[in-house]
Design goal:
The protein has no helices and 15 strands. With 157 residues, the chain is mainly β. It has one domain: 7 Propeller (Methylamine Dehydrogenase, Chain H). The protein has a four-stranded antiparallel beta sheet, with no helix packed on it. The protein has a four-stranded antiparallel beta sheet with strand order 8-9-10-11, with no helix packed on it. A four-stranded antiparallel beta sheet has the order 12-13-14-15, with no helix packed on it.
Length: 157
């Protein structure tokens, strides 16, 4: 399947669409355990990362009904942002309501770095140089976490 667009819904599904066709029905639908909160397509466009309540699923787009990986028990609450980087998209980051900004190495399926924020994290984005992550929390603070120096710079708006 050639991925054009993916959407998540509170009916616990992720749907894949091809807007270049005039077909108003999804090409594929994946049923999940809970509602998808955040979605990210990998740079190679072969996988989709789905943040959910207490879990993250990594799904191979060519075999969507069988998750490649499932990261459970590392989160308490909604995973509000997900993303990936690394040569083979094997490093993912997650931002969660529990205040955790975590980086996982999918080769070993473990957290390799973690930043604990005092408030729930609402959003996060990887800088294009892949050396820092900027995230916002529910208190209005915007923080840049330098992944190389493992330090932060916080600004409250």
């Amino acid at each position: 399947m050639s991925l054009k667009l993916a959407s998540g819904s509170y009916d616990n599904t992720v749907r894949f669409w091809d807007p270049s066709t005039n077909n108003h029905n999804p090409n594929e639908t994946i049923k999940l355990d809970s509602a998808p909160i955040s979605l990210q397509i990998t740079d190679k466009k072969d996988k989709i990362i789905v943040g959910m309540y207490n879990a993250v699923k990594i799904i191979d787009i060519s075999k969507p009904n069988t998750p490649i990986r499932s990261l459970d028990n590392a989160f308490k609450g909604n995973v509000n942002a997900v993303g990936c980087f690394g040569n083979d998209d094997k490093i993912i980051y997650t931002a969660c309501e529990d205040g955790g900004l975590r980086i996982f190495d999918l080769k070993v399926k473990n957290v390799i770095k973690e930043h604990k924020n005092s408030r729930p994290i609402n959003c996060a984005a990887l800088h294009p140089n892949k050396g820092s992550i900027v995230f916002g929390d529910e208190g209005g603070a915007v923080t840049k976490w330098d992944l190389y120096k493992d330090n932060e710079h916080k600004t409250t708006l």
